[in-house]
Every structure is written in C-alpha cells, then in structure tokens.
Write a structure and sequence with these properties.
The chain is built from 4 helices and 2 strands, in the order ααββαα. By secondary structure, it is mainly alpha-helical. Strand 1 and strand 2 form a beta hairpin.
C-alpha cells in the first residue's frame, strides 16, 4: 500500500494543517505584541490591552529569561522573540511526531534508514 492511498494520510495532513494554523495565530499575535511594545502603544487603548491580555499566557513563561531593553519609552521584549522561537520548535516537533504515523513502504523505509547511517 503506498502512502497516497493510506487511510492515515488525510488525518495526518489535517493534523499538520491544524498545528501550522495554531502556530500562525500565536506567532501573529506575538508579533503584534512586539510591535506595540516597540512603538510604545497606549496601554489604555482597547486593541493594545486586548493584544497584551491574549498574549500574556504565551509570553509569560519566558518573561524573566532576558532583560527588557527600553529606549525612550519603547520596549524591546527579547523574551517574546524567544517565545516565538520556542513555539515554532514545538510545532515542528509535533508535526514530525505526526509524520511518524505515516504509512511507508519497506523500500522507502530502507532507503531512509540508509540515509540516517551517514
């Protein structure tokens, strides 16, 4: 049975799409956070408060890793960049875990094993 006709191919594909979609949303929200901090956005504004509140759970585990750089009111939150990188690495790991469930032919497996021996 080739992997194109395997019953596991479509669910694996959908699973990877979901992971990429979730990562995309988190990354965009964190980018908004970075931009608002750098531009010294008004924290009383609704949009700014919304972005900070929604991104706090994603950024807070990393907030004390690096110091914050502040230049004339602008804040560069290096830890948000770290959070973005960590979430990207986690997404890649989850997708690779999903792909381990992909149906593979014996010749294809042998070829991939040979490449790993190098």
């Amino acid at each position: 049975m080739d992997s194109y006709n395997s019953p596991s191919t479509k669910p694996l594909y959908r699973g990877t799409q979901i992971v990429w979609y979730i990562l995309g949303i988190v990354e965009v929200l964190l980018i908004f956070r970075v931009i608002l901090k750098i531009l010294d956005a008004n924290s009383a504004a609704w949009f700014t408060r919304f972005i900070y509140e929604i991104t706090d759970p994603f950024a807070s585990p990393f907030l004390r890793v690096f110091s914050i750089t502040q230049i004339q009111g602008s804040i560069i939150e290096w830890t948000t960049f770290l959070a973005m990188f960590v979430y990207w690495v986690v997404a890649i790991a989850i997708i690779n875990l999903f792909l381990m469930g992909k149906t593979i032919s014996t010749p294809e497996a042998a070829e991939k094993l040979d490449r790993q021996e190098m």
